[in-house]
UniProtKB/TrEMBL annotation:
The lineage of its organism: Bacteria, Pseudomonadati, Pseudomonadota, Gammaproteobacteria, Cellvibrionales. It holds the Pfam family HH_MFP_RND. This is Efflux transporter periplasmic adaptor subunit. Residues 221-315 form the Multidrug resistance protein MdtA-like beta-barrel domain. It comes from Oceanicoccus sagamiensis. Residues 319-380 form the Multidrug resistance protein MdtA-like C-terminal permuted SH3 domain. Residues 116-183 form the Multidrug resistance protein MdtA-like alpha-helical hairpin domain. Coiled coil: none annotated.
Length: 418
């Protein structure tokens, strides 16, 4: 007897059984796919860093010092005669030329003295002329025995006395005329005139205020600073021959070279200075000695008493290994750089840094020219790690591309906008 189900319920049961078998096979396939995928290595994203090669170049070493601008001449203008100030002929703080009038002192007493001495001189000249005539008259008489030797000697003596009196009166008159000229006080040099120490009506001279004002020559200017003895030794080693040293010593310059001036706003002064004097004695308390340079100042950008920085070349390193200062890190164990090796792995390299200038540092040891050091991204890497190294140009192009994409994304309309 056939017991196979024939009704609708039997057909429904068979369909359920077939669907369950198909879903089970699909699940197994998915599980197998996941197991295979888990067995594959996951790619590691490498860190990007910016590198720069260590350069080999000529590197001048400078000493930098706090300096002060000083006038090349600083003259006190004083009254040379006694009297009352009648007029002040300058504006305080202005630029004056040599010979420009500054003060006028009451000249009437000195004019009267000149007139009196002129009269006395004329009287002495008249006496000299009379004595000359007496000698001229007595000499023929003496030759004819009409006058004695005593008469001629007295006449000659009177003539000599009158001549001496004329010379004395001339000297007194010259002195009086000189005193009269001192009543007009002029600037002895060209420069900036300071504040007036006296007003109109003030008594000046030995009986009153002697100092009237000051005039400072500001073109050229002196730049004064102090150099250490160690820097002095470096500067001395720059001299290549005994003749150079002898010439520098003869000129009073233990240190030679041009001085670069940096102003208060950290800009370089347009003119270079030249060392003109070095103090031959070292201050035992500070271990330094004074150095003075002369620098042009036609536009009066430098003022007396102004603080500046002076930079003087001490030595030169012809084949220095130089890196950017941003590539150097310092820790308790010393200074180090991160070097990207040819296989793109990072090596932590301890170095000995040397002189530095304008963001560039000389590497005395620990690094060779041409090796690639990391300048940006050092905080994201460690020793032995593989990296993607970009040079400065590639890094710049990457930043420009990212900025361009960001701007385009900001400019693109959103989905909600029509």
């Amino acid at each position: 007897m056939d017991r196979t189900p024939r009704g609708p319920s039997s057909m429904y049961f068979l369909q359920l059984l077939q669907a369950y078998s198909a879903s089970r096979r699909t699940g197994c396939l998915l599980l197998l796919s996941l197991l295979v995928a888990c067995g594959k290595p996951v790619p590691v994203e490498l860190t990007e860093v910016v590198i720069q090669p260590a350069e080999q170049s000529y590197f001048p070493v400078y000493g930098e010092y706090i300096a002060m601008a000083m006038p090349s001449l600083d003259v006190e203008v004083r009254a040379r005669v006694d009297g009352f100030v009648e007029h002040v002929d300058f504006k305080e703080g202005s630029l004056v030329k040599q010979g420009d009038p500054l003060y006028r002192i009451d000249a009437r007493p000195y004019e009267a003295k000149v007139k009196r001495l002129t009269a006395l001189l004329n009287s002495a000249k008249a006496s000299l002329a009379k004595a000359g005539r007496d000698v001229k008259r007595l000499r023929p008489l003496f030759e004819e025995d009409a006058a004695s030797q005593l008469d001629l000697d007295n006449a000659l003596s009177a003539q000599e006395t009158a001549a001496a009196d004329v010379q004395a009166k001339q000297a007194e008159l010259q002195e009086a005329e000189l005193e009269l000229s001192y009543t007009k006080v002029s600037s002895p040099i060209a420069g900036l005139v300071g504040a007036s120490q006296v007003d109109v009506g003030a008594l000046v001279g030995s009986g009153g205020q002697s100092l009237l004002t000051t005039v400072k020559q500001v073109d050229p200017m002196f730049i004064e600073f102090h150099m250490s003895t160690l820097d002095y030794l470096d500067a001395q080693r720059r001299k290549n021959s005994y003749e150079e040293k002898r010439k520098a010593d003869a000129e009073g310059k233990a240190v030679e070279g041009f001085v670069r001036i940096t102003l208060a706003d950290d800009t370089d002064y347009r003119y270079w200075g030249d060392v003109s004097f070095t103090d031959p004695q070292v201050n035992p308390e500070t271990g330094t000695f004074a150095v003075r340079a002369v620098v042009p100042n036609p536009d009066r950008e430098l003022l007396p008493g102004q603080f500046t920085r002076a930079r003087l070349e001490l030595e030169t390193i012809p084949d220095a290994v130089v890196v950017d200062e941003t590539s150097i890190r310092i820790e308790q164990g010393g200074s180090y750089v991160m070097v990207v090796m040819p296989d793109k792995t990072v090596e932590r390299r301890f170095i000995v840094p040397g002189p530095q200038r304008e963001g560039r540092v000389v590497i005395s040891s620990g690094l060779d020219a041409g090796e690639q050091v990391i300048t940006e991204g050092m905080h994201r890497v460690q020793h032995g790690q593989r990296v993607v190294a970009l040079n400065q140009q590639q890094y710049k192009e990457r930043l420009e591309a990212e900025e361009k994409a960001r701007l385009e994304e900001q400019a693109a309309p959103s989905d909600g906008e029509s």
